[in-house]
Structures are given as C-alpha cells and as structure tokens.
Write a structure and sequence with these properties.
Number of strands: 2
Organism: Paecilomyces lecythidis
CATH class: Mainly Alpha
Family: Belongs to the amino acid/polyamine transporter 2 family.
Helix content: 55-70%
Subcellular location: Membrane
Strand content: under 5%
Largest sheet: 2 strands, antiparallel
Protein name: Amino acid transporter transmembrane domain-containing protein
Strand order of the largest sheet: 1-2
Order of helices and strands: HHHHHHHHHHHHHHHHHHHEEHH
CATH architecture: Up-down Bundle
CATH topology: Amino acid/polyamine transporter I
Number of helices: 21
Main location: membrane
Length: about 600
C-alpha cells in the first residue's frame, strides 16, 4: 500500500502519527472516538458531531488508496482519452470493487434503525458503500451538460447585456465555474470514504463547519431543485401550447408535463440517468441547430414580443409596432438602456444558469465508481458548455436581437421549424427535470424522512416504494409553485441569485478554504489514531486556525487568499441579482395579475 504522503491531495503530507502510517498499510477499518471508546462507523448516529475532521480525513485517504490500487490492477482502466468521455462504455475509467467477504447486503437493510445498524459488520458496511458507486465519468459528463435552462436562456442573457459585456461575463462565469468544480472535488476527496460516505452538498458543509451550514445548504438546494423542476414544467407547457397553435388550454399543457415527470422520475440511480442524459445532450444540439436555422431564415415571433428581452429595453420602444410594423432587429455592443441596472443584472443571472450544475456535483461524485475521474469529466463538460452555448447564444442574438425570448426556441415565427425545435427541447427538458427531481427528492428524503422520521433508506424495498409515492407529490408541488408566478424569466433570475449562484460561486471557496486550513493544521504527532481511538491535537480554536492558514503550501495559500476575495465578490453579485430579480417580479405582478393557472398561453399575443 502506498504511504500516506503519496496519497495526500496536491502531494502534501497528511502528517499522521506513526501508528496511523502502520495502520494505513494494513488497511485497518476499525473506528474509535476521540475519547478512546471504540465505535464503528455504522454504529454511530447519522451526522455524528463527535466525528472529527481528522477521522474523516484518515478514512478518506484509505478509500483513495484502495481506489488507486484497484485502478492500477485493472487492465480495462487504462486512460482512453477524451473520446471515452463523449462516447462512454460501461468500464470507462471507473471501478466498482466489492469485497466477497461480506455475508449480507447492508444496502438493502434498514440502516435508519439503530438496532439494525448494530448487527452490521465493518466489512458489510463498507461493501454497501462500494456497491452504491456505479456512475462513470462519461455518465457524469452528460449529467452535467444536461442543464436545459443553460443554452436556451443564454440568448436572452446576451440581449439583456449586449455583445461585449455578455461575452465577457459568460467567459468569467465559465472560468470561475470550472475553478469552483475543482474546489468541490478537492474537498470531496479529502472527506469522503467508504466508512463515512459524503452523500450531498450539505455533508461537506457539516464536516467542515457544523450542523447549521448543512441545514442551510439542504434548504437552499431543495428550493433550487424544486423550482428548477417547476420552471421546466412551465417552459415545456409554453412550448406545447405553441406547438398546438394555442388550441389546447395552457394550464393543461403544463399539467401534461407534470404527469410525464411522474413516470420519468421513477429512475433512481445516476448511472441509469447517464444514458438518458447522453440522449438529452444530443437532442439539445439538434434543437439548437434547428432553432438557429429558423432564426437565420425566418423573422422573429412578434406575437411573443411582450415576453422578449426588448420589453425591458428603452421602455419597450424597440418592440412596439409603428403603424402595424414592428421595428427591425437591433443589437447592442455595450449594455442596452434598460432604464436601470436591474434588467442587465437579471440578464446576467440567465448566464449563471448555464453553470448551475455545481449544486449537484457532490451528489455526482458520491455515486461515481472512482471520484478522482470527476475532474476530467467536469472540465470537459464546462468546456463543452462554454463553446457550444456561447456560439448558440451569440448566433441567436445576432439574428433575433431584442426579440429573443426565454427559452429561445419559442421565438421562431415559422410554425414547422418552431414545432420541430419545441418537440426536441421538450423531450430533453423533461429528462433534465427528472434529473433535478431525482437529486431533490434524495436530499429531502435523506434529510427529513431518514434522519428525522427514521424511514428506511431508498435502497431498501420499503424505500423504493416510498420513492414511487413521493415522485407525484414532488412534481405536483413544483408545478403549483412555478405556475403561480407570472414572469418566467423573473423567476429564473430569482432562482439563479438566491440558489444557483451560491452553490456555484459562493460556497465552493468557503468549503475548500476551510478544508485546506484544517488539513494544513495537522502536524507530526497529530491526527486520528484508530488503534487507541484518539484524535490528537496540540492546540485548538483561533490559534489552530491561524496556524493552519500560515502552514499551507504556497499554492494553496495563494488560492485561499483568492478564495476569500472570490467569496465576498460572489456575495455582492448575489445581492445585486436578488435585488434586480425581485424588482422584475414586482413589476410583473403590477402589470399583470395573470398566472399560469389560465387557459391563454403567455406566448399568445
């Protein structure tokens, strides 16, 4: 087995006690508390505050070492290049090592019951954790790029910001989103293990800051995922009503997609979703090509002008017909005159949507065969999103200008092209909504039902039945919430400002900096000793915090200093985004009392 120094992130020495080095080589799975009382991981209560950072970190190194050992011994795990991400196979760089020593499958047992957990052996516990890791890096690449709201909201963002500011902001968002993904990856690898698996974004916060931030993360993540599902239901309802030439009641169109979600939502594992996501990405590309062709050869959909970006530019004069003739398509090199900064910031929030996948990155890594492979999948997905989405957004803005609507495929005037684009977009959007619902229900179920109500895990038969029953409830709530708000783009801006921006740009630097400080604070003679069950620290409190910061390697020290500025900058942007989004929604409610609970489609004049 490799020595700990070779296993640490960034090549750093985890600085464990000499006994811990000997235990690492032996792969000893015994667990003990800081008080010296031996307690195995499965015998602890869920999210036990008595488990120290050193203990999480110790077992994370064991898990990473085991993954590396299996990867090195498997002939099928040789590097296959970037094409293996675009065209994945079942063994594209992942591993699923499952020990044969376990006599029972603990993943099918009700581990919410403390008495049941007491009967589970260490081997059965870690074996269950290994068995649940089935997703490959190819699957994760497509899961990240499935974000339907990204490409089709981007033309609206460019129309709100203009050519120059739009390209600049989208480029900055892309670079920072990739960096945030790296920060989450670093933190995850240092805290996740078979003994103490990280299941969600909230788990990372809990292990670095405590219970309060875990609850904050879970609440914000649940709100975002619920609204994402609702937004897709409403946008698909608009697309269906347009495809039906507004002959079908709009609220019925939305309800149809809510019912579709009842069935798509029954897929539980992300590996199975990987193939659906694969199809969704290519369907999105076909839809983009169709809508670009339609935008280049047909005029904009003037009947939907009231929903376009031009409605908030120059008081709507650019979309107001003169003598029955609509003004020509115009674009802006700089910020358009929106009568204030709220319209432009609201447009920027649409660009943030393109990189909103970070809030489920920990959930993706939690189900990966080899989480180390996540980084290449994530960077590949971010590069794909940047170049493909950028081209699409600029193309549509160039041809439709101020008449761009959100989502953009609804802005094509020719019915045949409009319908073709709508059909493809609706299918891929339904898959994306099912993915959001999948993660959202897991967060809610594990947080409320499993932890508070002691419900059985989703891997058990009873849990699977509970999942089937929760799907229609979740989709029904998402539908009702989204349908009650009259401004689609305003709602997306609110979600982007309050939730998406936080998970992509605010929280990752907060987590990574805390992780690096705690890791750097470990020095010789300190760490978790599984033999005695002690966590040895020579100091604590503020002194240890400053010492950890000062003891960082030069690379992580510079990154941590940047992270502090990054964190506060993201908070400022979130504040501006929240203010502008709320102003847009207030304006929408004043101008119209209509919601989606009506028969007339918002695109019908």
């Amino acid at each position: 087995m490799a020595q700990p120094a070779s296993l640490a992130l960034d090549g750093g020495d985890p600085r464990l006690h000499e006994k811990e080095r000997e235990t690492l080589d032996a792969i000893d799975y015994g667990v003990a508390t800081s008080q010296g009382v031996s307690i195995s991981p499965q015998h602890r209560k869920l999210h036990d505050p008595d488990v120290t950072f050193e203990e999480y970190y110790y077992y994370a190194q064991l898990t990473r070492a085991e993954e590396d050992q299996h990867a090195a011994s498997e002939e099928t795990l040789k590097e296959k290049g970037f094409l293996s991400i675009l065209f994945p196979t079942k063994d594209d760089g992942g591993i699923q090592q499952v020990s044969n020593n376990a006599t029972r499958d603990a993943s099918k047992m009700n581990t919410s019951n403390a008495a049941t957990r007491m009967t589970i052996t260490d081997e059965e516990w870690t074996n269950a954790s290994r068995a649940l890791r089935t997703a490959t890096r190819g699957a994760v690449f497509y899961l990240i790029t499935t974000d339907i709201l990204g490409p089709f909201g981007l033309p609206y963002a460019f129309a709100s910001m203009g050519w120059g500011p739009g390209v600049a902001l989208f480029t900055v968002f892309a670079g920072l989103a990739g960096y945030s993904g790296y920060l989450l990856w670093e933190s995850f690898l240092g805290l996740d293990s078979y003994q103490f698996p990280v299941r969600s974004f909230g788990d990372l916060g809990f292990r670095l800051y405590g219970p309060w931030i875990r609850h904050l993360f879970n609440i914000l993540q649940s709100i975002q995922l619920l609204l994402n599902v609702g937004l897709i239901v409403i946008s698909n309802g608009e697309a269906l009503s347009q495809a039906a030439k507004f002959k079908l009641c709009f609220i019925i169109c939305c309800l149809i997609w809510a019912l579709v979600g009842f069935f798509l939502g029954q897929v539980r594992t992300l590996q199975k979703f990987g193939w659906l996501a694969n199809a969704a990405v290519w369907i999105n590309i076909v839809c983009m090509i169709i809508t670009m062709g339609g935008a280049a050869h047909t005029p904009p959909n003037y009947t939907a002008a009231s929903q376009s970006a031009g409605a908030s530019i120059d008081g709507g004069i650019l979309i107001t017909p003169q003598n029955g003739v609509f003004p020509p398509v115009t674009t802006s090199g700089g910020l358009p005159n929106s009568g204030g900064f709220t319209g432009s910031v609201s447009g920027a929030m649409q660009a943030v949507f393109s990189y909103g996948g970070a809030m489920v990155f920990p959930e993706f890594m939690a189900e990966m065969k080899r989480p180390k492979d996540f980084l290449t999948a994530m960077w590949g997905a971010q590069a794909f999103i940047y170049f493909v989405y950028m081209f699409y957004g600029l193309f549509m803005y160039g041809y439709q200008g101020q008449y761009v609507v959100n989502p953009s495929y609804l802005g094509i005037s020719k019915y045949s092209i409009q319908t073709a684009g709508n059909v493809f977009a609706m299918v891929s959007a339904a898959i994306a909504a099912a993915l959001y619902g999948n993660i959202g229900i897991k967060v809610i179920y594990n947080t409320i039902f499993v932890e508070l109500l002691k419900a059985p895990p989703l891997t058990t038969r009873a849990g699977k039945l509970a999942w089937a029953g929760l799907i229609p409830v979740y989709w029904g709530i998402a539908f009702v919430v989204a349908a009650g708000i009259p401004n689609f783009s305003g709602l997306t801006s609110v979600v982007a400002a309050f939730c998406i921006l936080q998970f992509t740009y605010t929280f990752p630097p907060l987590l990574a900096t805390a992780y690096w400080i705690k890791r750097a604070a470990l020095r010789d003679g300190e760490g978790f000793n599984p033999t005695t069950g002690e966590t040895i620290r020579q100091d604590s409190g503020i002194k240890r915090l400053f010492r950890g910061f000062a003891n960082m390697e030069k690379k992580t020290l510079l990154m941590s200093m940047f992270n502090i500025l990054y964190f506060f900058g993201a908070l400022v942007l979130a504040g501006l985004g929240a203010y502008s989004a709320i102003e847009v929604l207030i304006s929408a409610f004043k101008e119209s009392r209509a919601t989606s609970f009506v028969c007339k489609s918002p695109l019908d004049g």
